[in-house]
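Training component of the fellowship. As part of building independent skills, the fellow (R.M.) carried out the full modelling exercise for a liganded target. The chosen ligand was D-gluconic acid. The inputs are recorded below so that the supervisory panel can assess the work.
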Amino acid sequence: MRITSADVIVTCPGRNYVTLKITTEDGTTGLGDATLNGRELSVASYLRDHVCPLLVGRDSGRINDIWQYLYRGAYWRRGPVTMTAIAAVDCALWDILGKRVGKPVHQLLGGAARDGVMVYGHASGQSVDDLLDSVGGFLDQGYRAVRVQAAVPGLESTYGLHHPGTGHTYEPADAAMPTDNVWHTPAYLDFAPEMMKAVRERFGYGFHLLHDVHHRLSPLEAAQLGRSLEPYRMFWIEDPTPAEDQEAFRTIRQHTTTPLAVGEVFNTIWDCQHLITERLIDYIRMSVSHSGGITHLRRIFDLADLYGVRTGSHGAGDLSPVSFAAALHLDLTVPNFGIQEYMGHLEPASEVFRTSYTFADGYMHPGDAPGLGVEIDEEAAARYPYEARYLPVNRRLDGSMHDW
Ligand code: GCO
Ligand code: MG
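Fellow's submitted model of the complex:
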């Protein structure tokens, strides 16, 4: 079935989302998420100006050929902008295929390999006491896995905390200019084990405990952290060091048995090739929407399976419900599934995106609607126009830049 149009919808229901809508000659539409938090318009332009004109007239069923055409055909390969744009096209085409044959995408991928997808929720607090209340709330809702982050004493701001008043943990890409945060590694390294100890003392070991370091440590500091957290049996520590340095993980690995996860800033299989084939990590956390879509991510997950690495896809609220649904379809089918991040979306997003995924007992299911199971209400989207926003940046006590 030929593609007749491809349109880009940019909307900000709580945060910015870029959505690609592809339409075929029988009127079937498919959606792909093209959101790159803080750099949204670059992908919108890449699609509108360079990709959409190439799609019109092509056979929407030739997903593999279109993927290769966009990847090889650009000459300028890889990178977050290109791979997010390709991902949006790929997901929209899987959505169309599913709708045309009347089946959910997970069935097109060979069918479910499990009944549900275990997700982790985001507990956080301005103090350890606040954090404990937050963890208790997630356990009461039935979560089997909880990520914990709390304000580091002595620092004015800490990554990953709930925004007062919003009810959600989400990335604070909310300022017209990037906010300067302050970071001090020694304060964090002292505090992190105390935080985990408090959580395990209060709630025991009957659930999975996760933590995101957000690329802030050197390899040896990360090794020290991993060791200091061993008594608390972490499910993983995420992004312990800046992710582009694959060799760093070898050092961490040599010193600790705390499981390691990385990948949310990766875009292709080449970014994690050594990490996987040399068994330097335990979980690969790439997202459908930043890594070339379902077609490319399932290849990465297959490679990971050969080396005993499990999946743990990025599922932050800055990825749209379209991306989250695509992740759930893939998660349901892969043999080496580990866990799925679930941050949720701010309230106005449910006016714009109608979803068919569900949560029960700590597991999620993408639903059995044909395609991805997400629809966009374009009139609602138009009520929430794009807002220029940036993620924060991080500086050390002496004012020099650090990784955020
Ligand atoms: C996570 C991530 C996010 C990122 C965000 C950047 O683990 O969910 O670290 O919180 O910071 O996706 O836009
Ligand atoms: Mg993260």
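The panel noted the following from the submitted structure. The chain has two domains: 2-104, 108-369. The longest strand covers residues 3-11.
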